Amino acid sequence: MAETKSGALTRRGFLKTTAALAGVAAAGAAAPTLTALAAEYGTGQVAGEGEQLVCGVCRGNCFGQCKINVHVRDGKVVKTSRRPFNSWPEGGAWDRICLRGLSHPYTVYGERRIQYPMRRAGERGSGQWERITWDEAIKEITDEWKRIQAEYGDQAVAYTRGSGNLASINGVGSPLFNVLFNKINATQIKIARDQANTRGINRVVGSLGDWVLNSTQDYINSKTVFVWGANITDAQAQDWPHVANAVEAGVKLVVIDPIYTQLASKADLWIPIQPATDAALTLSMMYVMIDEDAINKPFMKDHTVAPFLVRSDTGKFLHMSDLGVAPREVPVEAQATNIDAARSSSVNYGATGASAGAGTKLIDPYAVLDADGVVKAVEDATDPQLEGTYQFGDVECATAYTLLKEEVMQYPPEKASDICKIPAEDIVELAHIALDGPCIHRLGWGSNSYTNGVHAAHAAITMAALTGQIGYSGAGTGACNWNSGSGTNMLLPNMTAAKNPLISALFLPEIMRTGKYMGKDHPIKALYVYSGNPITNQVNTNEYLNDILGNLELLVTADYTYTDTVHYSDIVLPACHWFEAEDIVLLTGAQCYEYNAKAIDPLYESKTDSDILRLLAAGMGYPDLFPLTDEEYCHKILDTPALAARGISFDELKEKEDLYYKSTKPWIPWAGNSFMTPSGRMEFYVEEPELQFDMGQEYDRDREHLPRYFNPTEAYEGSPQWDKYKLILLSERPRFRVHSMFSDNKYLRELDPEPTVKINPADAEARGLADGEYVEVYNDRGHAVAKLVYNDAIRPGCMVYPKSWQMSQHKAGCWSELLTSAYDPVGVNESYFDNLVEVRAWKEA
To answer: Where is the 4Fe-4S Mo/W bis-MGD-type domain (predicted)?
Structure first.
């Protein structure tokens, strides 16, 4: 191993040090000319003799949605290559494709491609199948759905998806599924992945989508980019060039991650934090900012709820109506943009009413303590105070900032150092770097994956409120850039309102065990799965197999490859690959609509999702439910007045291939400090904590008002499982798969042939385990067998595995067997990292 220099330490010496002292942070210099080697990249973009280049899109859920050339010869896909974006001609968007994008022919023509409908011929999971016709498959499915609904109720038929096909007509974004399943009053089961970041951030700033942050092209305008728990070089490889461009331009890169990832090796500063303690670190950074009186007070007063008075009896904001001041009438237009707009007009104001005239609404202004000591409406105050208390009758009120400060000041760097296992001086340094903006804070899926993940995100966005670093170029806090394309039409002909509630997948085991939802009968007996593989990707596989599958009378899966979920299905339908149908793709990372042309005819007996839905609708007695062709539905989705005003239409998309849909480039969310909250401000104090999904679960409402640190459910020293299991099990999102997609790709399996698990050599040697031997990782929920890999980059006390290997690819067990189904009642998010395990040599039975 070469002695490559990295700051003051050699890379080898650095890793040796971290193996012994995981709490030591170290500096590293980014390699020069990170993108220069790819500057002339153009391989494979010229059509060979007899080839046609078709505009395709790689539609896996890595958030890339990279444009690709599909090289077609004699009606067959022979290879794929990069296809430039037109919306970013200066090279500011995804200008290369990864190994997965180059390997598509091995998936299209893979050995495990599903070629025809199949009926289970043996026990579930036996792998015994009988080939049937499409007519037989549709009749059997719909006859069973009718029987089940007649016996158990309409809700007993359910449908769910994963994220394996990001498209608008034949994929997870398609409203066509809702057209059918709403029509038959089926139950929708929503996946519960990567939602803690969303919940923690959106409850402070409002929602522009699930994961919102400045365009990656804007990173170069930042002074420092913080990356919290994300290995972008592998998990979102399409974003890495933008980070590299920023680093080359002099932007500092700070990586906060328990693992010395490839991204960490490129960072100016790596902070090897103890898993699940991100909220404590952020609160301590805010401690330093407040203690040094370095917060952005004008921003706090004008654009956050910091000066709002909070009632101690209800936990709600004090309003002027509480003081006897009648709500005031304002124009509706002004209320929509006024950052001081008060609570919604839907509030019942008694004799005053909710509306005083056409085009107006009544608002009930928030009360603040002005500099003269008088409580006033926030818009009437000359200098609203950030700190202070007010006695409202027998009720004491304090400003939201006062309450935040009380929480934050419990985490001086010395205390946070003990929690996070990093030096106190590093926490102070991080706070100073975060103050010296503009800074981008990109939150990955690391801190998101514990039952305290909502609060880690809530703390991060609160720090943006303290610094005022949000809503302008180079400044922002959020997860990767993933937001909805405004102006699209998702209401299609024959779409009806869903009769049954949208249910989180994490509630499904209990519903299947009890047959009840929210205390009422809600048996589910049939499940239709599309664009997903829940048996591999949902936590706690054995619970899924026993409680969910064990209580189902019919499991139907539509897919193009043989997944674990297909393996356990009763009827399997062959779906098309992405290249076999025309579609619209929403590339939210670059704010583009993309055109996915049909490159080849559907192979074998496969059908598009839309055609499968048409057959199912006819079988359920609704042959005219889908009156339009796919192309006509594409027009319905894009040909809207809002998009026409921006020069966007489906015909224009087909001609241009990709169209930018935002008003500015690069896109900056929250520009102008207009937030989609009831107050129009950053509500770091959450007046009305709400559940992501309400199943009647209990939660601590008082805890949810402010960002807090508390232990996760399992993955910490001293937890109830600690006496048996002392290794925290983490996963990484590898470059060779996207969740379980590409698992069957022969080309990628040559590079990545089997499941592995990484461990720090010190932990392995303490257990007598050798590098390269097969080991069994286990806990009370299950086990997984994989090849052990010594790796000094793994924090002692942790193990790391590349996620989403299929069950059939393990020698025994699978990774998801080990994962807890415990969830935070507010975020209702799968806690992929909140697990303790042990490891031993595998004794093959």
So the answer is: 51-112
